[in-house]
Amino acid sequence: MPFKLPSLPKLANWLIAFGIICIAIPLGLEIYNYPWATINNAQANEIRLPNAPLPSFPYINYSDLQEALLTESRLTRTPSRAAILPGLAGQTSAVLEEEEVEEETEEEEPWVDPYIAYLEYANANFILLGNVKIPRLALSENLFEGTDGQLIVGVGHVPGTAMPGEEGNCAISAHRVHALYSGKQPFRYLDSLQEDDLVQLVFQGYEYTYAVYTSMIVTKYDTWVLLPIKDESHILTLITCDPVIGSADRLNRLIVFARLVKIEPLELPE
What we know:
With 270 residues, the chain is an alpha/beta fold. It contains six helices and nine strands.
């Protein structure tokens, strides 16, 4: 039986039905994912969110980072912790001192800058730092080092900026649109944050609580948002794309600034 094209009215009905489905699916996802219970809740900041589940894929704990780096055969000497992450010395009890360089040999490998080695290692591996919690958005996500593939599976810390709780500007970034291959859009409703809303970072046995104080739209070239801010000692900068819907290479960034207001030690399991 020869194939017969559908009549124009039937084809038009199919196209209309397809268009309705294309609109209904993202609309349904938006309604489902919207944080209805907390977005307008006056007591939202008092909600205690649980930590995000640990990743189901291979990852490295930040506390094991030193050991992982020191096993890299490319390094001809052991970098100090401060050399890998400037200013990080003192955050934990394990601070490694720089070892003496072994006697030179004719076939000695060239020395590799430890910070560059760290960046390369972070880009090639998922290094789990801790958790990000935003009660207003009912958000609890894993925090990884790096802002490349890490954003597919959670929130990323911008390498080179201050670590959570550290003096300076700690910058974190996440996707705002739905990544169909992962379903992650942690900062989808970042523009809903209000002044004094809380952002909590769980890192190295402590929970660092920051309070939002301002937000703005900048271009993607405004890298000054990663720098320390005058008269602010401990800052958290949250970064995501803007607008929500647009080209793949959106030119603007939504920036939310928060300042450190509380540090709480976490109770370790017995």
